[in-house]
Amino acid sequence: MAKESTYKAEHIQVLEGLEPVRKRPGMYIGGTGIEGLHHLIWEIVDNSIDEATAGFATQVNVVIEDGNKVIVTDDGRGIPVEKHPQTKKSTLETVLTVLHAGGKFGGGGYKVSAGLHGVGLSVVNALSSYLKAEVHKDGKVYVQEYERGNPKADVKPVGTTEISGTIISFIPDEQIFPTVDFDYNAIITHMRHRAYLTKGLKLTLTDNRGGKTKRHGFYFEGGIKSYVQYLNRNKEVVNTPPFYVEKMVGETMVEISVQYTDSFAENIQSFANTVTTPEGGTHLTGFRMAINRVINEYARKNGLLKDNESNLTGDDIKEGLTAVISVKIIDPQFEGQTKAKLGNPEVQGHVQQAMAEYFKYYLDENPNEAKKIIGKASLAARARAAAKAARETVIRKGALEGMTLPGKLADCSERDPKASEIYIVEGDSAGGSAKQGRDRKFQAILPLKGKILNVERARLDRMLSSDEIKALIIALGTGISENFDPSKLRYDRIIIMTDADYDGAHIRTLLLTFFYRHMKEIVDAGHIYIAQPPLFKVSYGKEKSYVYNEAEKDEVIEEFKQIRDEKKAARDAKKSIKKIENEILEESADLEEAKEISSIADAVSFSEFADLQGINVQRYKGLGEMNPDQLWETTMDPENRVLLQVKVEDAEKADEVFTMLMGSEVDPRKRFIQTHAKTVKNLDI
Q1: CATH number at residue 465
Q2: 573 Cβ neighbours under 8 A, 6+ residues apart
Q3: Residue after which a domain boundary falls, among 382, 417, 450
Q4: From 501, 559, 625, 665, the catalytic residue
Q5: Residue 426 counted as an annotated binding residue
Q6: pLDDT cut 70: percent of the chain above it
Q7: Is 521 annotated in some ligand binding site?
Q8: Of 503, 543, 552, 555, which residue is the catalytic one?
């Protein structure tokens, strides 16, 4: 895109004031939790990246100091400092104190930006207890400091400089954020994404907290082509090198990279102006239309599809597909406050045009890679046909047999899905206890025999040959593959309940792999939970406590020891007083005095000391060791139980972990085990 050579006060347009930010921070950063806290960094970093996208910056540095002070530096043009024509204040103060003041509203500051609302600097200022802006521009250094959005003094020059750029330092306000503690790894992930999406930009992160320094740097000449290779680093790839195109179509910069792997899952990351769009949008639609058409046309033209064969479907073509789609546009129209979906209709045609033209060139110029891609899609088509037959069998089985399943589902009487839950239980023994201990009104039990199929390494046709997976699909009621309908889910909570050992953890991982790969909408909607059965029962006399880890066990033992010691001391005191009482009674001729001493002894008496013999610790290795009452009390009773809700905070990381742990490549899994072997705890042997 063409560069705008000047960046002046008239480029900054003022739309409205700043007052609402501190009162309703969630409207601007999504909330005051950990995600909202990190959003402050994203706003400042993305502003600097906008300078790089426009061609005026080459480097962005982020430093975290003790006290969670953040310093973001870029070598861009520097925020304008001259008096703004509308506010009559310094332009720097304007963008720091007025909501919707920035170079992103048609004023000529930026043709492309990551910010839809352009509220970044002012919002960060409003939500920081301290902020300092330092601008290097036109040979001078300008500084202004703020406290909770209020300037301490006017913008003023403090020296000379030979560089240009902006340095923003801020400390999040603890009056706004209950917890102020930045996650180094979360910042790394964000900056890695931004580096891939802005090729040639150098980003660094330095963490100086706690007297130790950690540092990461990112620089990718290959842009999203490097990103695709990173996503596939633990997978066996089909086509090398990846397809890549960067093309200006109309006013849209289109950048796409594609590579197939031996995986059965699809992994597509889409972005608009470097902002991730997890729900896709018009750019993703244009991409799918183009790749489907080009692959089928190439296959027909080169005899890779016979005349009597149907076209490859979108499901066939997306199997094993890894793609990154990035568009940069002047006026992005996002759907919803979270910018999850791009809505610009013209972008669909722009992406479709660029992808179709250049992907056709790629296939023509790389015939061996083209045959591999189409061969994989054709194999997927044959598997799809086999899966369709198997799936129809599953549907018929479910319709004819109702819920009398191979897994012996014990259903609940409640028919409202929102008021129902199902426990997926490891083994018949635990299943029996769970069935007896449950509340039959709203709790269903589905025992599974052994370990289910690893679906990371199996297509749908093989999956549906597994009795356990078929039972699970029918019990949930959603169907599978193209017949999957999350609105038909029969239970609001799907609770995985396995033993607290490594076999239980393996079964849990296999189930999570199935849900993530084939029912991801259920995971995203928050329907999947993991039960937390206790590891120990600690008892002392009539007292008992169920605990979930070693540290908690030790705490309870210490508490019981204290109770035991207090009782022992009281018993000894009673014995001493009783002894004194008897001695006095023997020596005293005063009956009233004897009665008084006797009443003192009664006041400190204890009815029992029989439980002083010891503290008992029982280790539960399996759910089957608990009787139904114990299982209900500890793991199934909504009043007492502990459930972990499964959430996908980082889809890219989740895909990486499932691929590494459950995929066909052994070396990444071996490296992971070697790396973490010394930190493993509670491993049963």
Answers
A1: 3.40.50.670
A2: 604
A3: 382
A4: 501
A5: yes
A6: 83
A7: no
A8: 503
Q: What is the distance between the alpha carbons of residues 266 and 231, in angstroms, rounded to a whole number?
A: 11
Over residues 165-193, the pLDDT tens digits come to: 999 999 999 999 999 999 999 999 889 98
Q: How many CA atoms lie within 13 A of 471 on its CB side?
A: 22
Higher pLDDT, 610 or 647: 647
- Confidence class for position 107, pLDDT limits 50, 70, 90: very low
**Residues written for the chain:** 685
Calculate ∠ Cα 44-48-49, nearest 5°.
115
Answer yes or no: do 209 and 232 share one domain. no
pLDDT at 120: 80
Same domain, 205 and 326: no
Give the C-alpha separation, 521 to 486, whole Å: 7
Single pTM value for the model: 0.69
Q: Is 524 a catalytic residue?
A: no
Residue 684 annotated to the active site: no
Burial class (CB in 10 A: 0-12, 13-18, 19+), 503: middle
Residues 133, 41 share a domain: yes
Split at pLDDT 50, 70, 90, the class of 38 is: very high
Q: Is residue 495 part of a domain?
A: yes
Residue 519: both structure tokens together = 């029912």
Q: Is there a single domain that holds both residue 462 and residue 343?
A: no
Give residue 78's identity as a one-letter amino acid code: G
| Single-letter residue type at 532 | Q
For residue 437, pLDDT over 90 is answered with yes
174 and 263 in a single domain? The answer is no
Contact indicator for 205, 192 with CB cutoff of 8 Å: no
The half-sphere exposure of 385 on its side-chain side, counting CA atoms within 13 A, is 8
From the list 75, 426, 655, 656, the catalytic residue is 426
DSSP one-letter string for 432-451: HHHHHHS-TTTEEEEEE-SP
DSSP 458-481: --HHHHTT-HHHHHHHHHH----G
Q: In this structure, are residues 13 and 105 in contact, taking their beta carbons and an 8 Å threshold?
A: yes
How far apart, in Å, are the Cα atoms of 75 and each of 20, 134, 191, 606? 32, 12, 17, 77
3-state secondary structure (DSSP) of residue 617 = strand
User: Does residue 23 form part of some domain?
Assistant: yes
Q: Is position 503 annotated as part of the catalytic site?
A: yes
Domains identified in the chain, total number: 4
**Cα angle value 332/336/341 (rounded, 5°):** 55
**235-to-226, 289, 624, 659 alpha-carbon distances in Å:** 15, 26, 38, 7
Same domain, 99 and 34: yes
**What range does the domain containing 546 cover?**
537-619
Answer yes or no: is 572 a known binding residue.
Answer: no
Taking the C-alpha atoms of residue 528 and residue 519, their distance in angstroms, rounded to an integer, is: 10
Q: 148-154 — which CB contacts under 8 Å span 24+ positions?
A: 148/22, 148/173, 148/175, 149/18, 149/21, 149/22, 149/97, 149/122, 149/125, 151/93, 151/96, 151/97, 154/90, 154/93
H or E stretch covering 65: strand 59-65
**Tokens 């439980």, residue?**
611
Q: Does residue 371 sit in the same domain as residue 439?
A: no
H-run or E-run covering 581: helix 550-587
Instruction: Give 214-245 as a DSSP string.
Output: EEEEE--TTTHHHHHHHHTTTS-BSSSSPEEE
d(CA 373, CA 539): 62
Do 208 and 272 fall within a single domain?
A: no
Catalytic site includes residue 439: no
**Higher-confidence residue: 539 or 337?**
539
Residues 6 or more apart whose Cβ sits within 8 Å of residue 546: 534, 536, 537, 538, 633, 634
Q: Which of 499, 633, 655, 656 is catalytic?
A: 499
Q: Which helix (H) or strand (E) holds 137?
A: strand 128-137
Give me the mean pLDDT over the 324-339 stretch: 82
